[in-house]
């Protein structure tokens, strides 16, 4: 029995329009909605499959995002340590936010690269002295 597939599809359509016209992104938390197996089947059938898949390999919270056949619509699944889904989303965005680099991670990368470059420069200077 279909309960929420059509309203969810309409929400996706409006969110796509908002993304295109206003740049606004939207997230639908699927596992927080009462959807039947028939709803899920219809949603997956209408949305189809895209060509991009993003996998976040983490021991504590592995995640996966798949682009649907509708550009700008992504299905995301975040799992727990036991590989069981804890959060399922439909993200209407150009690129899933949770899959993108986080500001703290970029800051950590800056520190790492600064240290590595400094180490290499120091090593090169030492080698030049010994030549």
From TrEMBL:
InterPro entries: HupH_C_sf, HupH_Hydgase_express_prot_C. Pfam families: HupH_C. Residues 103-130 form a coiled coil. Keywords: Coiled coil. Residues 2-118 form the HupH hydrogenase expression protein C-terminal domain. Belongs to the HupH/HyaF family. This is HupH hydrogenase expression protein C-terminal domain-containing protein. It comes from Aquifex aeolicus (strain VF5).
């Amino acid at each position: 029995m279909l309960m929420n597939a059509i309203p969810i599809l309409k929400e996706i359509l409006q969110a796509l329009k908002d993304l295109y016209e206003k740049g606004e992104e939207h997230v639908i938390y699927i596992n927080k909605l009462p959807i039947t197996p028939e709803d899920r089947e219809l949603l997956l059938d209408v949305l189809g499959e895209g060509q991009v898949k993003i996998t976040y390999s983490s021991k504590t919270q592995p995640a996966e995002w798949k682009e649907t056949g509708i550009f700008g619509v992504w299905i995301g699944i975040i799992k727990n340590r036991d590989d069981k889904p804890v959060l399922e989303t439909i993200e209407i965005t150009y690129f899933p936010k949770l899959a993108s680099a986080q500001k703290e991670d970029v800051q950590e990368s800056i520190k790492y690269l600064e240290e590595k470059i400094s180490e290499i420069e120091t090593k090169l200077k030492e080698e030049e002295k010994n030549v």
